[in-house]
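Holo prediction — FE2/S2 (inorganic) cluster.
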Amino acid sequence: MMVVGTSTMKLSRLGPGDCFYALIGPLGRPSELESYPTVLMVAGGVGAAPVFPIARAFRDRGSRVVTIQGARSSELLFWTEKLAAVSHRHIVTTDDGSAGRPGLVTGPLEECLQQDVQRQIGCVYAIGPAAMMKACCEVTRPFGIKTVVSLNTVMVDGTGMCGGCRVNLRGQTRFTCSDGPEFDGHQIDWDEFLGRQKTYAHEEQCSLERYLAQYGQAGVKPFA
Ligand code: FES
């Protein structure tokens, strides 16, 4: 978990013996795993966590798995060994060049697609920050390759009742919590999605400032 706001800061301060008020799940729909000769998985930042079980499942089904794992810098990379262990090919990138290839995941993604002369890559999974998923979809679109993304919308109830997690798929409204989180990335209205992600930025900042004013920052780690 990366500490980015009030809730993750609260979670990061839990110790042995502490507990949540409540936890519900699993929610949403499971990944739909079709048969492909090769699957290309792109994991950005914390996206490595959801990519890992999907990559492992494809590998267990006999697909060749190519994984591109990226992060801003080396200290934000995790589970590289786990991802490498379930991948036939594993490429690491960092924005600052502190590990793997310098640059964004979209560079090796485009290279892999261009090298795929026999059209073995049946599907691309891209999971990570919204801007990264959008960029991956723009790379794959001209190749006509199905691209699945896992959305990280703001959620409230998580059961399809509040509409807070809605996403626009070619004019059709879908709820990320109950219809997703995985969708065809080429159908998403990314500009609307990115705009909605910032809807509560001010309230989130105020919440964090209030929390820090009350409890301080002592003991907070960037990861927990
Ligand atoms: S979180 Fe409320 S409808 Fe999805």
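READOUT: The chain has eight helices and nine strands.
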